[in-house]
Amino acid sequence: MLSTRIAGIGMYVPEQVFTNDDLKEYMETSDEWIQERTGIQQRRYAHRTEETTTTMGVEAAKIAIERAGTTAADIDFIIFATLSPDYYFPGCGVLLQRAMKMKEIGALDIRNQCSGFVYAISVADQFIKTGMYKNILVVGSEKHSFGLDFSTRGRNISVIFGDGAGAVVLQPAQKEGQGILSTHLHSDGESAELLAMYNPGTHANHWVKDKLADFPDAPIADMFMSHEMIDKAQNFPYMDGPSVFKKAIVKFPEVVMEALAKNNLSTTDLSMLIPHQANLRISQFVQQKLGLGDHQVHNNIQKFGNTTAASVPIALCEAWEEGKIKEGDLVCLAAFGSGYTWASALIRW
Ligand code: UT7
User: Tens digits of per-residue pLDDT, 60-70?
Assistant: First the structure.
């Protein structure tokens, strides 16, 4: 069976830099708190009206396509991962297909939040391996800045997230042993409400009232969207940060080890781990738990914050551009987030 390689990679981050001190204009926070708890120094925010999740994805895709030595006309399938789509529906995949004037190819959107890009890589890998497609564009893009609560009430979430996009073009591998060795996908919906954006939605509090007994002033959500929800700021994401942190530091190392074990490899074989950039403290914990050296892990959350579905391709692209990933290297992508869902992909570059 064919294997799948990353033939081209690109990233795009918006021009506007927002430092921790800039956030102090909107909420009670401090550079010290944010750096100490998350490692983040700054993040990028998209232009409010000129840039969308799709337009940023297009910019990253253009670079990935060019580096793959192909053209938009040759792409035969699109997979777009995001939690901040331009529209509730249709998804960003079709908007990208239109914007890039691609053929009438299939476009699939993936709603897996932080692990969305790794899930997308896994899906693409199956299509390449079976020979169904030869040039798949996978994009992860987020415009978080448009949907965060910038008041002190939302500070535990809003300081973390940033905007940006990353993209790869996947093609059949050209050499024996090259490409994606295996992918590993997991979920545990027991804690779905601990990192979630409930509204607008159709839940009518069916789940929320049982799972989040202490959710402040949960309205009877008998409408898709109501004034009451907006008045109570319940149209913003909710996160129980400490619970997410505790689960992440268990599942990240587990899914990396699962990928290595599946291929009879160990952490000493690993050239580069690209962890989803959730929190620098999480990445450091994972690095320590796996016994990896600094040269084996790439982090850039300090500059870009947590860009959810875009964070893995942005970090991968940056590491590759800096010459930290070369042909023959063993690279592991790993992600954990809302759902919970978590995943890894082991790649021989
Ligand atoms: O990619 C998606 C997956 N998400 C994650 O992996 C996130 C995992 N969780 C985390 O990264 C951490 O839990 C956070 C960075 C979100 C929060 O750090 P923490 O050390 O868990 O803080 P906390 O939520 O327990 O809050 C501690 C205190 C609270 O004050 P009190 O109650 O002790 O007086 C918060 O109100 O820090 C306060 N706080 C802040 N203070 C200043 C929360 N956010 C801020 C803030 N600035 N931005």
Answer: 999 999 999 99
